[in-house]
Amino acid sequence: MDRQRVEEAAFKALMLLSLGVLAASLGWVVLTVLVRGLPALTLEMITQIPRGGFYLGGEGGVLNAITGSLCLAFGATAAALLLSLPIVFFLQKEYGGGSRLAALTQLSLDVMWGIPSIVYGVFVFVIMRYVGLRASLLGGIIALCLVELPIMARAMQEVVKMVPVELKESSYALGATRLETAARVVWRHALPGLLTAVLLAFGRGIGDAASVLFTAGYTDNLPSSLTEQVASLPLAVFFLSGTHLEKVRQRAYACGAILLVMVLLLSIGARLLARRHQAYVQR
Amino acid sequence: MPHISIRNLNVTYDGHPALRDVSVDLPDGQITVIIGPSGCGKTTLLRCCNRLIDLTEGARVSGSVLIDGANILDPSADLLALRKKTGYLAQKPYPLPMSIYDNVAYGPRLHGTRDRRQLDQIVERCLRASSLWEEVRARLRKPAAKLSVGQQQRLCLARALAVEPEVLLGDEPTSALDPLSAQLVEKRLIELRGDYTVVLVTHILRQARRLADYVVFLYLGELVEHGPAEEVFGHPRDPRTQAYLSGEVS
Amino acid sequence: MSRGFRDRAAAAVMGAIALSCLLLAFGIAVALVLKSRPILATTPIGRLLLSSSWRPSRGDFGFYPFIIGTLWVSGLAMAFAIPVCLLGAIYLSEYATSRVRAAAKPLLDMLAGIPPVVFGLWGVLGIVPLVSKLGTRLGSFTMGYSVLAAGIVLAVMVFPIIVSVTEEVLRKVPLEVREASLSLGATRWQTTKHVVLRAAFPGVFAATILGFSRAFGETMAVLMVAGNGYAQPHSLLDPAQTLPALIANNFGEMMSIPLYDSALMFAALLLLVVVLVFNVLATFVLRAVERRMA
User: pTM for the complete prediction?
Assistant: First the structure.
């Protein structure tokens, strides 16, 4: 009996230690980047584009990357939203739910969820070369959309699945069609979760580098058109961090801090939004 | 003139029979109560009347259900118009995720009513008809989810009435309510009879005795006995009915 | 346009979009296979996978060092992550109060949301110097960009997915099973060890597979801390290059050397196949577990 107690106590200690490691790693990552990055963050960094010699220590900022990332993420998230919603509603029982197409679509979504973003980047790059499109904002949006789509769809599916069938039946019993029920009742009930899914995907969109590496290119200018190359924050961090010059590396840290703060704010925002809309939904 | 005629209705769930060859006429303008032990097909029968049974996976239905002479089980039947004709009260009230006003206005809006004043009138009329008006008139724009369960069920009644049905179907509509709210809902249903044909499912015999004009007794999916309430309650013919009414079977 | 018509039209559009999603997934595989054909035509697949000779200008494309590099880095990440995540998930599922669990969820979500490049920065700032110090302590000089550094960074990156999937699987074990064990006089730990984990084992296994798959495909963080050598790593302190890093590093060159682009497409195909197999396997296992527990 004593051996059991000792074993249990030992494992409990290990478990708590593990939880500590999990929490500490989050803290370590966030603190490291913020502590090294925030001091190097100047107003210039976020309001100016790189001037000549920026990568060698000269003047300028990363406004090109900030706006570039925002354009990429907005475009990709909007596109992914337009595709996700119909797919997720389609997978409900009253639409395609039990059919072969639905099962295969579900499988595709599961498969796509696991595909590394660099593979999407390569794929879109191949397609782009085939149709003659060069590295551009549009290419980056397409690649990012592919990355975001399975994430958004999975998160939305979780929420839509939880809409009580009796609620939908109340709507059908009043003579509503599936479309009307989806557009007037289901989305409202699922709204907090749907918004969270969108924010989740958006966060992914501003943070992903591998997919935009080949497809969006890079530039020192602000985004000007869909067919021009565009900078992105993750790539800015990557390029700036690879130099020997400490001053330029500092800029990489500052960029990283900007990115981290953006993502953390999105995360908090998603949570707050979810709480505010609880009022309209009966538990 | 029977409002609802059920002929040779058979329902199976994944092959297991839930209703066997049920044929009965439900009278117009009266309250019909479907009684029977749990699991014997009461809810199934009810859900055939507005084809909510379509939404249950694995359900196979054969036979016919005629409302005003037209078979609603016919694949070519106008489902939306049918559901407009039949109002439905579930056991647990499910207010739609919108304001009280929008809940009641939901049905009319679906079916084309857009005029603001018309909707206002409908909302008031239906909330009065379900004894909820006085309690909510000052907060029509507030979320319906904030109402108490009893109020929510009355809201669902108002919502159902708003589409101007001819038939009201209720699946144990008071079983989730406190006694006071239950009483209120029962009173409303009694008063609505005459203008509406009401069909209720209940497992509470006392409620059945209070409300029923006509009784349908189902046992293990079979229609055992049916008739005017005084007859079935007073002189049940079938031994199974007698056993159930005397409390031996529940 | 009648309401019924609108409904049916919408359903058709939704079905079409679902179909195109399906075709897309298929198309990715097809496109990569097609682009890999040129190199597969000149070099037998055995040579591609097992040769260590990487001389693109001579047409030599031996992926072995990079395959090994990817396996080492991912494997190391799992070695770090599995114990921590398993123990953490067990605690959250079996011992933690709902308040602790509620606090853990945002934590894990935040960790999951941090962009890979930020993890890379942390790796460069925090882990690489430590590895360098460790190397000096052990007598072998290293800048710190190594398999070890990448393994640590990747481990932290996969923490959220392994913990959350494992915790979910553990929670799905029915309460009655636990109660049966407890009512026979077992302690909570004995119940966990002998009953819950045994029941949930396939699901836990699937969770680790998902984590491994995620680590396998990570590009940016590895690019920044693993060193990007072209030789096979022989110790944890050696630099390594993973398949994703290889593709990312060389896409600029690939246009100028014949067959280079096809070789990199092949690398991407390899990546896709490995990740696909693991993910599909894990998903099936998880679905089967869900059905069994329900």
Answer: 0.86
